[in-house]
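Sample entry (205 residues):
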Amino acid sequence: MSSAGAPHLPPRSPDWPEVTRWRKGERQRLLAARRSLSRAERQRATKLVLERLAAERLPLAGRRLGFYWRIHGEIDLVRFVRGALDVLDAAALPVVVERNAPLEFWRWTATTELCSRGIWNIPSPVERVPVVPDVVLVPLLGFDEQCYRLGYGGGYYDRTLAALEPKPLAIGVGFEHGRLETIRPQPHDVPLDWIVTEARTLRRA
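Predicted structure, serialized as tokens:
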């Protein structure tokens, strides 16, 4: 997957500079709130999220699942994915292969060797075995009731979800304290299909 073959995202609206400033402030606030969680609070929320994901009976049998490796205190999905490996066709982790381009997903197994790479030094498989996911679990910093996601500002998941064919089931995973009245969505923002937190599952209407 490369930027050359990816669709161009729609242009940003005229109020984008003001929205950018607002989002920057919200990111800082939400990151601080997440970092302030105690170990016990984080473990409790993670347990509830994993239980909710299991209860939702995601369509994973024979599917290719993209997920993320936890950074900055995100919900850790490794245990959940390990438990699903027997039914999955494949699991895969996202990799930044080109700045400002869609992510690639590289195959991951319980024995895959990882290394830190990319602009954020996120652990990713050493060996490049591309996988096109049918289901993608996406990390959330913030979200709203319309299933729009506030991430770290790089736009990589928006580009990726816009480029993937066929379109995967996109499920955001995060903490309930990330709920916002609105993320002030722009034309380039791609909504998710579901959002799962420790408190609920939200589905886009």
